[in-house]
Design brief:
This protein has 378 residues and is an alpha+beta fold. The protein is built from eight helices and 20 strands. α2 packs across α3 and α2 packs parallel to α4. Bound molecules: adenosine-5'-diphosphate and magnesium ion.
Length: 378
């Protein structure tokens, strides 16, 4: 694996301009390939990241997220492809010439220095004078809500505080790009959720182009302008969170984000049928394949009293089981014998639920109808 810890001191010698805003750069990655022996860690990856955007790389462990980030940072040289920061090809530039700030899961702070010394370090490397260093350190401490803690030793800080110091150190020299690799994954759940908002707020205040790596779909949905879903070294889809959730383009994306169930559909002349029943779609199907699958999410389905409304599809099934989960109730329903799907309804105290074994109608909106070709093996 990459040994990035030795090189995490942000050591850009690029121009130092007073304000980060307006200096943010777009990133354009084209046809990146990286192999380790016979293994394809990055397989023809292309992605455009807008100036000032918060872009998240989301994918399972081993999908190539860190490799892609390390190519952007300059710690990994790809076999082929191109990386532009603005108009400049940076592939041949070493990390310290790329004007990037970086944050990792394991802080990479200098343990023998105080908080303020850690923050001043990247400024010293850039020969910034003492009084300006002090000014900037104080501002950076305020920026991450650590005002007054400059004299503390690193080992006297909590995990969340250390990660704030790492963040402050990554941006103190006003880099044009911020790269973060699972920076919150060592924190416990409450702190992680709080820090998600803080990191995003910091991004918004600085207006800096940010590439953030996580394997946590909720974190990605919470923080990002757009998410690039990556699997097996390939980018599957790049979209804003809501679009990604509502319009997954592959089974992998559909199943990695949120809870999904699939039912087989037959397609003839552009019309999809579910066990012989035609279903309406919001637009033409993406694929003409004969065997496709209907993608359903539990909260999109409703147990219906009557026939379908004009904007709905319906199917029937047999209720197997209901599970009370506090804020919601999940009903497991078998469809056409051996297919099972789940329906999530909001809990209401006066609700009467159908009894197990009864026939139920399920409706869902035409606009929520997603059909993907079965031959997509991802
Ligand atoms: P992620 O960050 O998504 O978990 P990585 O980018 O770290 O994934 O790794 C992607 C794949 O490349 C993994 O299968 C990993 O084992 C492999 N890999 C990463 N770095 C190296 C390396 N230096 N040598 C060999 N294989 C590597
Ligand atoms: Mg990784």
């Amino acid at each position: 694996m990459h040994d990035v810890n030795k090189s995490t001191g942000p050591v850009s010698t690029g121009p130092d301009v007073a304000s980060g805003r307006g200096r943010a750069l777009p990133i354009s990655v084209k046809s990146l390939t990286k192999t380790y022996g016979a293994f394809n860690a990055l397989n023809n990856v292309s992605i455009d990241i807008r100036s000032g955007e918060f872009m998240t790389l989301l994918g399972p462990s081993g999908s190539g997220k860190t490799t892609l980030l390390m190519v952007l940072a300059g710690f990994v040289r790809p076999d082929s492809g191109s990386v532009l920061f603005g108009d400049d090809e940076v592939l041949l530039l070493p990390p310290h010439k790329r004007d990037i700030g970086m944050v990792f899961q394991n802080y990479a702070l200098f343990p023998h220095m105080t908080v303020a010394e850690n923050l001043a370090y990247p400024l010293k490397l850039r020969s910034i004078g003492k009084s300006e260093r002090q000014d900037r350190v104080n501002r950076a401490l305020d920026l991450v809500q650590l005002g007054g803690l400059g004299d503390r030793g690193i080992d006297a800080l909590s995990g969340g505080q250390r990660q704030r110091v790492a963040l402050a150190r990554a941006v103190i020299f006003e880099p044009r790009i911020l790269l973060m690799d699972e920076p919150l994954s060592a924190l416990d759940k409450n702190l992680r959720e709080q820090m998600q908002f803080e990191v995003r707020a910091l991004h918004d205040r600085l207006g800096i182009t940010t590439v953030y790596v996580t394997h946590d779909q909720r974190e990605a949905l919470t923080m990002s302008d757009r998410i690039a879903v990556i699997n097996d070294g390939q980018i599957q889809q790049v979209d804003p969170p809501q679009r990604l959730y509502e319009r997954p383009k592959t089974f992998f994306v559909a199943s990695f984000i949120g809870e999904t169930y699939r039912l087989p559909v037959d397609v003839t002349n552009g019309t999809a049928s579910l066990f012989g029943q035609p279903i309406k779609t919001g637009g033409p199907l993406e694929s003409t394949a004969l065997q496709q699958a209907l993608i359903l999410r539990p909260e999109m389905l409703q147990i219906a009293d009557g026939g379908p409304g004009p904007d709905e599809n319906q199917m029937t099934g047999t209720l197997r089981q209901t599970v009370f989960q506090g804020d919601s109730i999940v009903s497991y329903i078998s469809i056409h014998g051996d297919h099972e799907i789940a329906v999530r309804s909001q809990h209401r105290s006066n609700q009467t639920l159908p009894v197990p074994g009864s026939q139920v109608r399920l409706s869902w909106l035409i606009q929520d109808t997603v059909i993907l070709p079965e031959d997509d093996q991802t």
